[in-house]
Design brief:
18% helix; 4 helices; 267 residues; 17-stranded mixed beta sheet; alpha+beta
């Protein structure tokens, strides 16, 4: 009898611990959103959506550091998984140190500022310097420093567009906004008001593209409202990226070490 009681207790304890582990994350269910079910929102919901949309450029930290697991796939297939150590000063710089998981040595260091991107390739011993719109050439979507920072921070991108409509679909508020060459559809999980998904459609002459961004696994109880699991897809470029964040630290003093070693080839 004592043995049965002990086993029962251990099973119950395991279930409780499992429950505690899963409750630390808020899942938005972003991948299951069905836009076809959207209906016009109430006046109260519209005001809430406008407030959420209006806060899109409010970054709730001055600095951020994290470890990020990155999986990347493009037209050439799936690339080896890498880990990145990330440091962000929200108004000025993004610093990234990339380590291949199977090598466990730094392969690349990247410094992004408001006007430039510098890439130090330690494996090939090369240094590349580009204007910040280099990312736009690669993705064909007009990213600026602010957009790159907002993606890392888990905020909306291109959110200065005019709101065209606000709808509701299930537990989500849908906000449709547009500019002359871009249409954005954003979804916020209610009642928490968490960004769950954003779909971007660009309409550059002769080059229409879409980007789909999903935000999952928010830290429960965190004031930062930070999504620790992201998915970014650009179907026309066959690009798919997943970002998994951990070891998050906010508002600490950060250094961004970046020296240019001698003997490297400048590309």
């Amino acid at each position: 009898m004592q043995k049965i009681s002990t086993v029962t207790f251990l099973i119950a304890l395991a279930l409780i611990l499992a429950g505690c582990g899963t409750s630390r994350k808020i899942h938005t269910g972003a991948s299951g959103i069905n836009p076809a079910l959207a209906e016009p929102a109430s006046e109260e919901a519209i005001k809430k959506a406008e407030a959420l949309y209006g806060d899109c450029n409010e970054i709730p930290f001055n600095t951020l550091s994290a470890k990020v697991k990155i999986n990347y796939t493009d037209a050439n297939g799936s690339q080896p998984e890498v880990n990145a150590f990330l440091r962000v000063k929200k108004d000025s710089a993004i610093w990234i140190s990339v380590t291949a998981s199977f090598l466990n040595i730094e392969g690349m260091r990247i410094l992004i500022t408001r006007d430039s991107i510098i890439m130090l390739n330690r494996l090939e011993k090369t240094i590349e310097s580009h204007p910040v719109d280099f990312v736009s050439e690669w993705t064909a979507i007009p990213f600026t420093f602010d957009e790159l920072r907002n993606i890392i921070a888990g905020r909306l991108i291109f959110c200065n567009n005019q709101i065209k409509a606000v709808n509701q679909t299930g537990n989500f508020l849908q906000v449709i906004s547009e500019s002359p060459r871009m249409l954005s559809t954003s979804y916020f999980k209610m009642p928490e008001g968490l960004l769950a998904r954003q779909n971007i459609r660009t309409a550059a002459p002769g080059n229409e593209l879409t980007a789909d961004l999903l935000y999952e696994d928010y830290e429960k109880g965190s004031e930062m409202r930070f999504s620790t699991l992201r998915s970014i897809s650009i179907p026309e470029k066959e690009i798919h990226i997943t970002l998994s964040f951990k070891q998050l630290e906010f508002n600490n003093e950060l250094s961004l070490p970046f020296s240019r070693p001698g003997g490297y080839t400048i590309k």
